[in-house]
Amino acid sequence: MFFKDEHLRIRFFFLFIVCLLVIIIIRVFYIQVFQYDKLSTLAKSLWSRKLPIGADRGEILDRNGKVLATNLTTTSLVVIPNQIENPEEVAQNLSSILNSDYNDMLAHVTKKTSIERVHPEGRQLSYDIASKINDLHMDGVYLVKESKRYYPYGSVLSHVLGYVGIDNQGLSGLELTYNDYLTGEDGAIKYFSDGKGNRLNVSEVYEKPQNGINLQLTIDLDLQLAVERELDNVMSKYTPEHAMIVAMAPKTGEILAMASRPNFDPNSYKDYDTETINRNLPIWMTYEPGSTFKIMTLSASVEEQTVNLFEDHFYDGGSVHVDGATIHCWKSGGHGEQTFLQVVENSCNPGFVALGQKLGTEKLMSYISNFGFGEKTGIDLNGESNGILFKPSAMGPVELATTSFGQGISVTPIQQVTAVSAVINGGNLLKPYLVKQMLEPETNSIILANEPVLRRKVLSEESSKLVRYALESVVAHGSGRNAYIENYRVGGKTGTAQKVKDGHYMAGNYILSFMGFMPADDPEIVVYVAVDHPLGIVQYGGTVSAPIAKNVLETAISIFNFSPSKEGMEKEYNWLDKKYVMLPDAVGLSADEAKKTLKGFQIEYSGVGNNVLYQSPIGNSYVKEGSTVKLLLG
After folding, report:
1. Are 555 and 598 members of one domain?
2. What is the extent of the structural domain holding 20?
3. Facing residues of 611 across strands?
């Protein structure tokens, strides 16, 4: 029995040893085959070091491929403390070259880490400073490539583009909104060292950086430059508190230009206060819109058929009484008897109060809400405001009256441009956007293309057409005549909004605005101009902002090749206007016949002969009265 037990124990022990050996063999096989890559990587990480190579941030381009934001190659200082034999000497040399504190530098070069980036004094070094460091040939001290953001046009489009911090991270504007796309992946030069950090004689490994994705915008740089120029002129001429211009393609929602004052240069953003660099006024600023908002009341009235612009009349005696409150017209004594089309042309407040009363509170506010007021437009920028509207339940007769002509509510410029675009494009409320497409940085192939986004239908095509007609009439016959462009069809609406402070309207302090678009029959561009409290001029939107919008639209004519039209409304002149007349066509006439035909114009002849071969300006176009006409005879 004893021997049997002994043999049994031996067998169990032998079986245990065999099983243990099998487990060990399986484990070794698993490690050698299945975990080889992982363990090899871990092993290499113990004796490999990486010198970082910064990736370039994606470029930002305008709609035609012109570069708005790019990168400059600079160098950055890193140290490997284990390779530095004399830390005190190295710290002294580096602090002297960088003009930094010795103790701070000594902390960098003695830090218990495999690699230390000297921040911030060692970042984005100039060529001269980098050369001085390189010439010392100090062990453990390395200069590595680093990318620095650069904006070639300085302050142009600054609030839209935004700016980046020292680590190339977007901090505002498109740089922030699209930071994840613009940011690339850093590369490195990998080398190998022993446990003490000493460099081994083993080949280096280059890990290529992956640059960020390029953004192509809806912005047209030429139009943007024109907008910036107009704003500079406004600031120089009138010294207003603020000024802004937004241009949009009403059929797509593409932002063609956007700028405001004050602005900043993102290349040196640290020189400006946070309010200036972070407040993009066209999307952030809220204020009472004034008479440009009457476009909403007009559109709702036309759609609901509560008024016939041509047949219904309104008598303006200069004021209207609503629930104990007196609301005045801007014109002392009023406009007298008018059709409602003339109410629109004259921007008559009492007339628009009547339009609002015909609609009623719920109907008017539902249209205002549908046009996107009181909510963000969804534009691809950070910092957009909602604006402030009355709740219908809190509105009495006076609130209804003032809302009808744009007083007592608060909106943003981008809300107004988006809403007016819906009014004139056939009734489609679109989401505004700035990024047209994303491009792969090496091949420039399209990764993602943005398309127009329809938020909702807010107006019928028929109503849109009638409102366009009324707004063209405003420019040809009414308060917007300073935006009239001869031989082209322009529509628009002026605005003069009294500013509010601490719940009270400020005397003599207005935001003067103009909303203009062209061609009036088939709009391709809408431009909004707002000037906050200009000095030294009569404060009316038609006086200050309409001429600015006209200048921008004239630039747009050449950029987008808008064709002249003979079908537009002829301007109704007053004694202050420079009168334009139709120039007869004299080509083909004899010299004597041409002289009679062009009576009242100054004529300059060139060439030899008796027949007119060519004239400049061409015939059947509007020119200033008494203009000089050049005739080529042959």
Report:
1. no
2. 2-34
3. 590
Q: Would residue 622 count as lying in a domain?
A: yes
In angstroms, rounded to a whole number, what is the distance separating the alpha carbons of residues 510 and 508?
A: 6
Any catalytic annotation for residue 332? no
Catalytic residue, candidates 260, 291, 410, 479? 291
Same domain, 231 and 212: no
Phi, psi angle pair for 254, to nearest 5°: -70, 130
Average pLDDT over residues 555-566: 91
**Residue 441 in contact with residue 185, Cβ under 8 Å?**
no
Measured CA to CA in angstroms, residue 257 lies from 74, 159, 227, 234, 311 at distances of: 32, 12, 7, 17, 39
* Helical packing angle, 102-109 and 87-98, nearest 10°: 130
Here the CATH number for the domain that contains residue 543 is: 3.40.710.10
CB 234 within 8 A of CB 243: yes
CATH at 160: 3.90.1310.10
Query: Same structural domain for residues 72 and 86?
Result: yes
Contact yes or no for 431/378 (Cβ under 8 A): yes
Q: How far apart are the first and last CA of the chain?
A: 141
| pTM recorded for the entire structure | 0.80
Side-chain half-sphere of 383: how many Cα atoms within 13 Å?
21
pLDDT band at 430 (very low <50, low <70, confident <90, very high): very high
Task: Report which of 175, 223, 183, 150 is spatially closest to residue 383, judged by C-alpha positions.
Answer: 175
Contact 94, 141 (CB under 8 A): yes
Evaluate if residue 575 carries a pLDDT over 80.
no
How far is Cα 374 from Cα 371, in angstroms, rounded to an integer?
9
497 shares its domain with 587: no
CA angle 468, 256, 516 (to 5 degrees): 30
Q: Is the pLDDT reported for residue 91 higher than 50?
A: yes
Same domain for 293 and 157: no
Residue among 354, 250, 371, 374 at smallest CA distance from 301: 354
Contact between residue 224 and residue 156 where contact means Cβ atoms under 8 Å apart: yes
Q: Is residue 573 part of a domain?
A: no
Q: How many domains does the chain have?
A: 4
Single-letter amino acid, residue 515: M
Which letter, b or e, does each residue of 350-370 get, where b requires 16 or more Cβ atoms within 10 Å of its Cβ? bbbbbbbbbbebebbbebbeb
Q: How far apart are CA 134 and CA 24, in angstroms?
A: 54
Beta pairing partners, 446: 439
What tokens were used for 579? Answer: 């009168």
Higher pLDDT, 418 or 145: 418
